[in-house]
Structures are given as C-alpha cells and as structure tokens.
Amino acid sequence: MTDDQLLRYSRHILLDELGIEGQERILSAHALVIGAGGLGSPVALYLASAGVGHITLVDHDTVDTTNLQRQIAHTLDRVGQRKVDSAQQAIQALNPDVHVTAIDEQADAALLDRLVAQADVVLDCCDNFATRQAVNRACMQHRKPLVSGAAIRMDGQVSVFDPRSTDSPCYACVFPPEPVPEETRCATLGVFAPLVGIIGSVQAAEALKLLSHAGSSLAGRLLMLDARHMDWREVRIARDAACPVCSRWRDPKP
Known about the structure:
CATH class: Alpha Beta
Structural class: alpha/beta
Shape: globular
Radius of gyration: 18 Å
Low-confidence stretches: none
Strand order of the largest sheet: 3-2-1-4-5-6-7-8
Number of strands: 8
Number of helices: 11
Number of domains: 1
Helix content: 25-40%
C-alpha cells in the first residue's frame, strides 16, 4: 500500500474489523455490478470510494432526465450517454485509481457466465426478474457470493446469497423462477428517491464486508424496508433442498 493509499483509506485502516489487511483485500478485489441505475449508482460510488481495485459495470441503457431524481452517478450534462460510461466518469472523478470496465450490453447468460467467473463478488442492481434469475444461476455455477437488492415505490429488500456456504439459500430458493411474476417498473409505479440510496448502500456495505472478511454477511437473512414508516423487518430464509437452481451445482452426485 502506498503512502497516498494509507492516507486515503486511513479511516478504514483504523477499524479493528478491517485494518491494513482488510483494506488490501479491498484494493485487490474485483466487483461485478449488474445495473448502473438507482441501485447501481450508490453501489458503484461506495465501492469506488472504498478502493475496490476493479469494478465491472454492466448496463445497456442510456441516461434519461427521469433518472436524475434518484440515480446519483449521473448528471444533467450526461443525459443521452450510455449509463456505464456516465457511471465510469463518476467513479474516476471520485477515485482515479479504480480500474473500471464498462460493458454496454444486456446481461444475458453467455455474458454472465464469462463475467461472474472473473469476479470476487457480484452485486445485482438490475430491475427485472429474468436478469436476477440469470445472475443467480451464474453465481451458483461459479460459486461467487451474490449481493441482491431491489426497490420499488417505497419498499426495498436486500440479502446475500453465498454458494460457498452449504447452508446459504440462493435467490431462487426464496423467489422461485416459476411462475414468472408480473413485472413492476418504477416508470409506471414510481420509486422514492432515497430508497435506492439506502438499499444500494447496504449492498455496498455487504460487498465490502465479504471482500475484506469483516463481520458477518446477510446470508440466510432477508432485510425488507418499508420507507413509509422507516420500518425494517428481517426474515430468516433457508435453503430449499429441492431448488432447481442451487441443487444442480451444490449437491454431490451419487
């Protein structure tokens, strides 16, 4: 670690839970962020500010004026730009030492298979059920921890699904792939601006804890936030032995 890094990350280094070793793990880590919108914005910025060495951003959308109410990585002068490029500019303005890979593509199975294998942690910040399931399948296959968040209207949820632990459920254990639920989009239902910041910040915190080996993760727990009353609820979630996704890769074959 250089003298500049020792100064920049001094408030992390002072923490008994992190110290120099934990910060060095963060500096050498690779985080894959799926989605550069409401959740992806605070996630990317906090991971960058904390010094995650390599951040890969995946999104195939462009910045729209309606995004600016909540997607804090983007600015008015970048309306019309690709979101991954806009977020990359925000990251590099905050911490130019972070290496950013910006991928302007749909996160399909083939792309995820390649990218998840290269990452140390995956953060699902997308806004549709099909992509969440695809991300989960790739994480289970490659045994990479997944930090999943969602937010709509004034309701949010966040959890960690860690296939490295035999007891940890996967996303599909809690939200089965079938039947496919009706999609709810903020374009029609709305979303409370700070809500995505709250959920995204929790996602970033969980990812940094996983990377630095600090504390314990949300694996096996689902946090749900009702922002109308700022009411947090925690639900214990268990692995489904009959899950069609994680049992495929985690159960030994006779």
